[in-house]
Specification:
The complex is a heterodimer of chains A (276) and B (186). Chain A is of the alpha/beta class and 276 residues long. Chain A contains 14 helices and eight strands. Helices cover 56% and strands 0% of the residues of chain B. The chains are: A alpha/beta (276), B mainly alpha (186). The structure holds iron/sulfur cluster (2 copies).
């Protein structure tokens, strides 16, 4: 299976670990991700906050590039996915319908075909790993842009974890906002939102959080030391990409190297579970 | 009429696909909003004021800048009002009209982001956006004084050690000129 791949800017930068795990998983699953030639930044929150015309034109340029390739497009970042979908909806409103589909990577990899492949290829079930799935905001919301069937209570990541043999825990905060867009300008605000998520995850019995977006990952992983300092109690919740868990269960040899690039080191937990 | 009713704001919003006139003040938007604790006007009041023409108050409020664009309100409004979209529209107006912005950090970060994408030829470089943002208006001095710089430096070093700070700029795109035209205002 071959798709156009829109990695987004941060996968060339701070989310190099996510990028590596995606490449590893694609290889294991026989999925060819052909990077969209000359793709540009989607404009992110900056564009839709200050310049609606640019917020539309930037993803539309990417969609036109994708149209010349003609394959479905997959984006691993929630915000990139959301902006591409918004661009596609804007074009559709003017009667220009792209002939391809825009996928969020988690949605793509939890289609029955891939879940079956993972079940077949599973080398090491993630037995005993207690995790909460954290979807964040923009993969699912707002549904008139994302076409998410169940924006308030998505379940595809839980289903994936079950296939991998892990134990997904129920919690009510899987789509609560972590404030990632404000991380630089108002870190005080995100500290409050993020600490609340840690507390709720712990209360649910979680040993780690699983995410499908590098902004959620960074926003939950990077400030953990700072939030611990301020709160006067130590939080140590690894924040794993769903792709890392797929690769771990399917026995990809590079997983420990990707995990070493997180700030909260997930290796002690996974070693204690006998998974590394 | 002694006082003129200011319908222009609601009409302009409607023209931008952001009609607010069906709001019946159920406050579902505000009740689900994760950042309402940091706002000076809860989202339902923003919509009400938009309907009543309270333009000056809205363009100067804190709410539109601390809104994280999480889209919870827009997803839940029983009347299909795009509240998050209204927040964005107001931000753009506030900047265009030179309103006094109570959260200059948020505005400047967005500006630095768009400026960095244009400068680097079409893709974002995270170190460049941080540099543009931090250098702006002596912000590094404020940071040093608040000793926020130490924490940020520790995070940056943590990323560097883990080979997650990109040391080479993103490639300049073939379409750099096209992107620069799209972002000409920044
Ligand atoms: S949820 Fe919609 S109808 Fe209810 S107060 Fe908010 S904007 Fe008005
Ligand atoms: S989009 Fe903004 S106003 Fe709406 S719920 Fe999220 S933070 Fe609150």
């Amino acid at each position: 299976m071959k798709l156009s791949y829109y990695p987004g800017c941060s996968l060339e930068g701070t989310a190099a670990d996510y990028a590596a795990s995606i490449a590893g998983v694609a290889e294991l699953l026989g999925l060819t991700l052909a990077e969209l030639p000359d793709w540009n930044c989607c404009g992110a929150s900056a564009a839709h906050s200050l310049d609606e015309a640019a917020a539309r034109a930037l993803p539309v340029r990417n969609l036109r590039l994708a149209q010349t390739v003609g394959l479905d497009v997959v984006a691993p970042c929630a915000l990139c996915f959301n902006r591409l979908k918004a661009g596609a909806k804007a074009l559709a409103a003017e009667g220009e319908r792209p002939t391809f589909r825009v996928w969020d990577l988690l949605d793509l990899l939890t289609q029955p075909y891939f879940l079956q492949r993972m079940a077949d290829l599973r080398a090491r079930p993630l037995t005993g790993l207690q995790a909460v799935c954290y979807y964040g905001c923009l993969v699912n919301r707002p549904p008139h842009i994302t076409d998410a069937a169940n924006p308030e209570n998505p379940g595809n990541m839980e289903k994936l974890l079950q296939v991998l043999g892990a134990t997904p825990l129920e919690w009510s905060f899987k789509t609560d906002c972590c404030g990632a867009g404000l991380a630089v300008a108002r870190p005080d605000l995100i500290d409050r939102l993020v600490q609340r998520l840690y507390d709720r995850a712990l209360r649910a019995g979680a040993e780690c959080l699983v995410v499908s977006c590098q902004m959620c990952q960074a926003n939950l992983d990077l400030p953990q030391a700072r939030i611990s300092r301020q709160a006067g109690k130590k939080y140590e919740l690894p924040v794993l990409y769903f792709t890392e868990l797929i690769a771990l269960a399917l026995g990809h040899p590079e997983v420990p190297r990707w995990l070493a690039r997180h700030l909260v080191d997930p290796r002690p937990l996974l070693t204690a579970k006998g998974l590394l | 009429m002694a006082e003129s009713l200011a319908f222009a704001l609601a009409e302009n919003l409607a023209a931008a696909g952001l009609a607010v006139d069906t709001c019946y003040q159920c406050r579902k938007c505000s009740n689900g909003c994760p950042l309402v604790f940091a706002m000076d006007l809860p989202p339902d009041r923003v919509i009400r004021l938009a309907l009543l023409g309270g333009e000056a108050e809205l363009l100067a409020c804190r709410t539109i800048w601390v809104c994280s664009s999480c889209e919870t309100c827009t997803t839940r409004c029983p009347n299909g009002i795009d509240i998050a979209g209204v927040m964005d529209w107001l931000k753009e107006q506030a900047v265009a009209k030179g309103a006094a912005v109570p959260e200059p950090e948020v505005r400047d970060f967005h500006r630095a982001f768009l400026g960095a994408v244009k400068l680097m030829g079409g893709r974002l470089s995270e170190p460049v956006v941080m540099a543009l943002y931090t250098l702006k208006g002596g912000r590094w001095l404020t940071k040093l004084r608040r000793s926020a710089a130490a924490g940020e430096l520790a995070t940056a070093l943590g990323l560097l050690k883990r080979r997650r700070l990109p040391l080479t700029p993103p490639p300049r795109l073939g379409g750099a000129g096209e992107v620069a035209r799209i972002l000409r205002r920044w």
